[in-house]
Each structure stands twice: as C-alpha cells, then as structure tokens.
C-alpha cells in the first residue's frame, strides 16, 4: 500500500443504510459516505489559529484549514476527540473547547474523494503565546491570523484553503463565531 494511504486504514463512524458503523476511513472518503467529524477553532481575541495540512495527507495536502479537524474514534465523544486532536496535531494541552454547533456538509476533496461530514464544531479561547508544537505528520505550518483577514483571504484565494474551511466561513460564520468575535450577524 502506498505510504501516504497507510494512515487511512483507521476506522471511523460512518452511516451505512441508516446505521452508524465503524468503516475504514479511506473507503468512507472514496465512497462519499456520511460520517462523524470534529472541527476546532482556537481564538485569541479576533485572531484564529489556522494550520497548513501536511504534504503527506492523502487528501487536501498543503491546504490551510482551521485549528484542527478529524474524525472521532468509535465510541469517542466529540469533546474528547477535540481535546485529543489539539494535542496530537499541535501539541496543545490545557485548552477545553466549547461545542458551538453541529453542521452537515458535502465537498469534493480531490483524488476521487468526498467529505460528507456531520461535524461537531468547537471554539476555544487562549492566548497567542500558547505553546504550539506542530506534529509534522499532520501539520506543515501554522499561524495566527485576524479573523476578518482570514475571511478576506479565503474569498480572494479559495484554492489555498480546504473546502470545509471555505464552507464554515461562507455558510456557517454566524453559527460559529457571532458572539465570540463580535461578528455582525448576516441576514
């Protein structure tokens, strides 16, 4: 098996014929099955920590995404998953994200793969001087960016960003951020 696909052998919770089952992650994405996911945004004032996905990722390598995102293990709570992935991807500990909303989206992520996720979205507040140690297997780079600058850059340069980040900022900005950043609610 190609090395870049080796990590895809993990199983994740996906719906098959209306019931949740543990299915191999790569197969979930190749078949476009609806599955559980978790996304976290770490904020410091009006700044958000974003990451560039590692080049070894089997889909959307090198694209910029929210602070972290993943799929929960079978029988793992979304909160526990969010805390785990902050640590596994960025070495961040001692941060306890709050659940904001659950959304569903479907997006082509290249290489004949589809993300069809039911995502539990979390926000956490921190200081910019928070210790971050990126896992190179997961993250190529990371940076703090002003939320409004991020939104503007996503609009100008959409191909630089993952489809899910574009969806979160384009369609679900109010649900996620309105009372956290002073974002004016869109009609």
Please write out the topology:
Elements: E1 11-16, E2 19-24, H1 25-31, E3 34-44, E4 47-53, E5 64-65, E6 68-70, H2 78-90, E7 98-110, E8 113-125, E9 139-146, H3 147-156, H4 163-171, H5 173-181
Parallel strand pairs: 3-8
Antiparallel strand pairs: 1-2, 3-4, 3-6, 4-5, 4-9, 7-8
> Largest sheet, if any?
7 strands, mixed
* Total count of strands: 9
What sort of overall outline do the alpha carbons produce when their principal axes are compared? Answer: globular
CATH superfamily: Nucleoside Triphosphate Pyrophosphohydrolase
Report the top-level CATH class: Alpha Beta
CATH arch. level architecture: Alpha-Beta Complex
Terminal residue distance = 49 Å
Q: What is the overall number of helices?
A: 5
User: SSE order, as H and E?
Assistant: EEHEEEEHEEEHHH
The chain-level structural class is alpha+beta
Number of domains: 1
CA gyration radius, whole angstroms: 16 Å
Unreliable stretches, pLDDT < 50, 5 or more residues? 1-8, 183-187
Q: What is the average of the pLDDT values?
A: 90
**Percent helix among the residues?**
25-40%
Sheet-strand content, in percent, reads: 35-45%
In CATH, the topology is named: Nucleoside Triphosphate Pyrophosphohydrolase
